[in-house]
């Protein structure tokens, strides 16, 4: 596998004087660039955060973007505070009349009316105190009413120690609703607790609070002793102090930066069908979890297990804090102590469930479009990309293939030969995935027509007979909404009988419609419904005006100013098996993923289900991958996609990516090319776009082969690099599935002690060893990248970064994305092909990247790529690679349980960061001919090895 050449590179100097001059010049230029970059960043923030910029949404909606501040606001606080009735905009007299305290802020984002110090709860009785649990009964103090509702007189608090790195802090009234265990069973770490990393104490005055400190440093990582703990029937509030303002997480939103702006930002969490047009909007998923990085680089993650709609309010230094305002339920916190960011994520995913293990083919390139007119168009697009040499593993079908948008049907007029086409894809080593929306059409006229198109199709009636649809508020009649098929009902995926019914119709699609589908794409599952934007909606489909649909407290959700929660979704008083929709709304997509996963296991036994979902909750990653939704073909959305990927990696989704080139609007040549370069390294790499906009104007094709030869050549090249890297990716996915490690990760995860990494979100790592530094702006031919201390080598030619621990300006013409490998790691690779069916049969290679001590280490996990739990059944190969002293490489088989791997070979080993040409080289004691050792650029290549990868080998060489 020859190393690919970069178009432009910087060679070393020829003499010492020139080097000295060059270093001085670079230092001066670097200072100037740093100053200019800082000024530009500040200017960019001002432009990006202008409150006057409105963003258009699909369906004609408009919102005003929330201003984001990078400079502190005037702050009169002497402590963390909580706003009291912030929606009312009280003056001082009104504030004090309502039992609150006047702070007197002169800035609109800093609350003036806040809770008194005695507002909350105090201990009434201490109930239990054991080595692992402490509980108390609390009684109300301060306010007796909030938002017209009585504040509960009594609640309980329980603190439970769960192992060395995990604890639970639980506030609840007697009848607080809980997320059912079948929705999210919080798993506990195995083994006994021997070295707790935290201490917990109860603060009793002036109000009650729970304080958690890190034993090793004394840092207070979680502290609820802030006024304003409130429990009512439909409003529950709590605030917590933070040890620093280095905050990451909460979702799903479009965040402009990975590290949060803490200046009184409010993030609503409530699943919603809305495109990721800008920040401040509640989107498809609900992830009430954050990571806080303490100033000494230790990390904590905190998860609030609550599925109600909520606001999360952030407040800045010098008193950083979070206020949660939920529409009900308990306050069920889980704290994970890290201490490293990576360990905190691993502890979190151990509790909510490890990410699913994807099939190997899903790591290839995917192609889709919403708006294929007919099967011929799909065939032509697949064929032109095949002829262009574009690697592709999966073609997707959006709603176009369905008859009148009825799920699990094929339109016999436009997609009649779809079964034969899918069989053809399989014959050339490719897969096919279809979209499945939850809404089941129940329009009698269309049902009659559908029966002619698909004679045995009666999905609606079958579900009605099975009694598995979401019910109206009476608990008897099926709830009706409106989605793509028109009038629809919604399966209640929380019903335990729903997955077998779903399996029946997946089986119908495969056996009666004869489409041998390989996976499912579950969409519109927030759940989305268009009916409440219909002025002609019949009375029977309207939501009643009650406290569930129109709650006394309204979070800052999109269109929340209407006073109701049901915009573009189901009425909140609808009934589901797990509870009122008001309580389980944000779990709908999660339950859809659980039911679909169970159904696919039933229909395709022994195979790993591959599901991509739009809506998600904590723990959904056990069952499905996620893509970042209906993004737009805009330059600003390109860096935002990296932030979304990094956040969802932290949320436990190892398989994550954005629609490459953007879904909505027309892309352009440069944007699409730069996006293909970035997207080639997303864990989930799919190019997907819409056919036309709301105005009826068509968007151009954006599949790689739709562009000119230069575009095709650059894209082919970069996708072949992805395919070459897939053994490394696959090994990372295995580590994610087994241990919860992230696949895509921010630099901060690997280098938490380097404070320069805490704000970096325009670069990312794949695993610990592969750095991607993309161009994310128009008309740029260089890019600044930060390289933490250590050795970093260009993937293309092995040139080493000469200034680690600093920003480096890299050449980046349109044909190049900068890729670097980290010293100390061995990356397994494989000769690429146009699909993984063929690449998996080719020779492996190793990129040995030496660190400062001339050592390197790595692993390869390999199995058949599609069977369930090959690790549990021992049907896998695990190989350890270890290079020591720059003179020896050991290849050691740890486990040899996959027979087919025994025929695979290692063809080439590349040594990066080698100081000189090696002398005599021996493999398993046999000297290698000199013509099998060569230099290419800065890389030593050992070629034509042909040694079995499933056997132990030792390579030794001398260094002159």
Number of helices: 15
The number of distinct β-strands equals: 55
What is the CATH C-level name of the domain at 86-351? Mainly Beta
Distance between the termini: 26 Å
State the strand order across the main sheet: 34-33-32-29-25-24-23-36-35
CATH topological fold name of the domain at 86-351: Immunoglobulin-like
Poorly predicted segments: 1-70
Strand content: 25-35%
Shape: globular
Q: SS-based structural class?
A: alpha+beta
**Arithmetic mean of pLDDT:** 92
Share in helix? 10-25%
User: What is the CATH-assigned architecture of the domain at 86-351?
Assistant: Sandwich
Main sheet attributes: strand count, strand direction, barrel closure: 9 strands, parallel
Keywords:
960 residues; alpha+beta; Immunoglobulin-like; TIM Barrel; nine-stranded parallel beta sheet; eight-stranded antiparallel beta sheet; 15 helices; 20% helix; disordered N terminus
Which secondary structure elements does this structure contain, and how are they paired or packed?
Layout (H helix, E strand, L loop, with lengths): L15 H33 L5 E3 L5 E3 L27 H6 L3 E2 L10 E2 L5 E10 L3 E9 L3 E2 L2 E2 L3 E8 L4 E7 L25 E6 L5 E6 L5 E4 L6 E2 L4 E6 L5 E5 L14 E4 L17 E7 L5 E6 L5 E6 L5 E6 L4 E6 L4 H12 L12 E6 L4 H13 L6 E4 L20 H10 L3 E6 L3 E2 L2 H10 L5 H8 L13 E4 L2 E4 L8 H14 L7 E4 L52 E2 L2 E2 H4 L3 H16 L7 E3 L11 E3 L9 H14 L5 E2 L1 E2 L8 H11 L5 E6 L18 H31 L4 E2 L1 H4 L13 E3 L3 E4 L8 E6 L4 E3 L11 E6 L6 E5 L2 E6 L5 H4 L4 E6 L6 E7 L14 E8 L3 E9 L8 E8 L5 E6 L2 E2 L5 E4 L2 E4 L4 E2 L4 E7 L1
Describe this structure in words.
This protein has 15 helices and 55 strands. 53% of the residues are buried. Helix content is 20%, strand content 27%. With 960 residues, it is α+β, with helices and mostly antiparallel strands. The strands form 13 sheets. The protein has a nine-stranded parallel beta sheet with strand order 34-33-32-29-25-24-23-36-35. Helix 8 crosses helix 10 (588-603) and helix 12 (669-679) runs parallel beside helix 13 (709-739). A hairpin with a 2-residue loop joins strand 52 and strand 53. Among the domains are: 86-351, glycosyl hydrolase (family 31) (Immunoglobulin-like); 365-522 and 585-627, Glycosidases (TIM Barrel); 843-959, Golgi alpha-mannosidase II (Immunoglobulin-like), CATH 2.60.40.1180.
């Amino acid at each position: 596998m020859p190393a690919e050449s970069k178009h432009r590179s910087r060679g070393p100097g020829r003499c010492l004087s020139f080097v000295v001059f060059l270093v001085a010049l670079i230092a001066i230029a670097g200072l100037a660039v740093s100053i200019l970059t800082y000024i530009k960043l500040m200017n960019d923030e001002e432009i990006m955060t202008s409150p006057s910029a409105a963003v258009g949404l699909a369906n004609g909606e408009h919102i005003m973007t929330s201003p984001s501040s990078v400079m502190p606001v005037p702050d009169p606080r002497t402590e963390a505070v909580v706003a009291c009735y912030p929606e009312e905009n009280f003056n001082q007299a009104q504030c004090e009349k309502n039992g609150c305290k006047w702070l007197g802020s002169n800035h609109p984002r800093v609350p003036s009316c806040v809770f008194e110090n005695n507002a909350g709860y105090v201990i009434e009785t201490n109930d239990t105190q054991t080595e692992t649990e402490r509980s108390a009964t609390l009684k109300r103090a301060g306010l007796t009413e909030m938002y017209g509702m009585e504040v509960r007189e009594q609640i309980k608090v329980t603190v439970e120690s769960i192992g060395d790195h995990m604890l639970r802090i639980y506030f609840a009234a007697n009848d607080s609703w809980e997320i059912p265990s079948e929705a999210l069973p919080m798993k506990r770490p195995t083994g006994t607790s021997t070295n707790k990393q935290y201490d917990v104490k109860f603060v009793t005055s002036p109000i009650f609070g729970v304080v958690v400190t890190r034993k090793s440093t004394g840092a207070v990582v979680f502290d609820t002793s802030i006024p304003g703990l409130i429990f009512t029937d439909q409003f529950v509030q709590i605030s917590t102090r933070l040890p620093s303002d280095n905050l990451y997480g909460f979702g799903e939103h479009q965040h402009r930066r990975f590290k949060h702006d803490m200046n009184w930002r409010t993030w609503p969490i409530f699943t919603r069908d809305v495109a990721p047009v800008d920040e401040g909007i509640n989107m498809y998923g609900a992830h009430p979890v954050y990571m806080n990085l303490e100033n000494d680089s230790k990390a904590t993650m905190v998860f609030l297990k609550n599925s109600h709609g909520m606001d999360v309010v952030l407040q800045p230094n010098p008193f950083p804090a979070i206020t949660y305002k939920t529409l009900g339920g308990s306050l069920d916190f889980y704290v994970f102590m890290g201490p490293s960011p990576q360990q905190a994520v691993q502890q979190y995913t151990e509790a909510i469930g490890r990410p699913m293990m994807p099939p190997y083919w899903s790591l290839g390139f995917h192609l889709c479009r919403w708006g294929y007119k007919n099967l011929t168009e799909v065939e032509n697009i697949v064929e032109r990309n095949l002829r262009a040499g574009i690697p592709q593993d999966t073609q997707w079908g959006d709603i176009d293939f369905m008859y009148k948008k009825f799920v699990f049907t094929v339109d016999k007029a436009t997609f009649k030969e779809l079964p034969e086409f899918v069989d053809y894809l399989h014959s050339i080593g490719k897969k096919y995935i279809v979209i499945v929306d939850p809404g089941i059409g129940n329009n009698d006229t269309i049902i009659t027509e559908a029966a002619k198109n698909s004679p045995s199709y009666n999905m609606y009636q079958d579900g009605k007979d099975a009694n598995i649809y979401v019910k109206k508020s009476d608990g008897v009649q099926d709830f009706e909404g409106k989605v793509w098929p028109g009038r629809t009902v919604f399966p209640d995926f929380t019903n335990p009988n729903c997955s077998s019914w779903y399996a029946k119709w997946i089986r119908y699609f495969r056996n009666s419609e004869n489409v041998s589908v390989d996976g499912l794409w579950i969409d519109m599952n927030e759940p989305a419904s268009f009916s409440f934007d219909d002025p002609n909606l019949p009375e029977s489909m309207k939501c009643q005006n009650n406290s569930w649909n129109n709650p006394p407290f309204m979070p800052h959700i999109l269109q929340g100013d209407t006073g109701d929660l049901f915009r573009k979704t189901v009425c909140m008083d609808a009934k589901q098996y797990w509870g009122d929709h008001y309580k389980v709304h944000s779990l709908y997509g999660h339950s859809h993923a659980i039911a679909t996963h169970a159904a696919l296991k039933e229909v395709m036994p022994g195979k790993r289900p591959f599901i991509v979902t739009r809506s998600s909750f904590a723990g959904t990653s056990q069952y499905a991958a996620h893509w970042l939704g209906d993004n737009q073909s805009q330059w600003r959305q390109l860096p935002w996609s990296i932030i979304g990927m990094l956040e969802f990696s932290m949320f436990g989704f190892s398989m994550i990516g954005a629609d490459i080139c953007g879904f909505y609007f027309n892309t352009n040549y440069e944007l699409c090319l730069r996006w293909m370069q970035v997207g080639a390294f997303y864990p989930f790499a799919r190019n997907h776009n819409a056919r036309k906009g709301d105005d009826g104007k068509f968007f151009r094709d954006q599949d790689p082969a739709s562009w000119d030869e230069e575009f095709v050549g650059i894209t082919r090249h970069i996708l072949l690099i992805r395919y070459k890297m897939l053994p490394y990716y696959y090994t990372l996915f295995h580590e994610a599935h087994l241990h919860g490690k992230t696949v895509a990760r921010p630099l901060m995860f690997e280098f938490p002690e380097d404070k320069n990494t805490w704000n970096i979100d325009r670069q990312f790592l794949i695993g610990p060893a592969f750095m991607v530094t993309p161009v994310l702006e128009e008309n740029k031919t260089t890019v600044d990248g930060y390289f933490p201390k250590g050795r970093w080598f260009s993937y293309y030619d092995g040139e080493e970064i000469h200034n680690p621990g600093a920003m480096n300006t890299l050449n980046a013409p349109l044909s190049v994305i900068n890729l670097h490998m980290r010293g100390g790691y061995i990356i397994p690779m494989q000769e690429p092909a146009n699909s993984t069916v063929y690449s998996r049969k080719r020779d492996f290679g190793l990129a040995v990247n030496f660190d400062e001590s001339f050592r390197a280490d790595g692993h390869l996990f390999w199995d058949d790529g599609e069977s369930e739990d090959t690790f549990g059944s021992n049907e896998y190969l695990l190989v350890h690679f270890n290079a020591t002293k720059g003179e020896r490489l050991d290849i050691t088989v740890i486990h040899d349980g996959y027979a087919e791997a025994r025929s695979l070979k290692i063809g080439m080993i590349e040594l990066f960061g080698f100081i000189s040409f090696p002398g005599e080289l021996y493999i398993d004691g046999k000297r290698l001919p000199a013509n099998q050792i060569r230099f290419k650029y800065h890389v030593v290549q050992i070629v034509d090895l042909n040694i079995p990868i499933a056997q132990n080998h030792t390579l030794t060489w001398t260094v002159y």
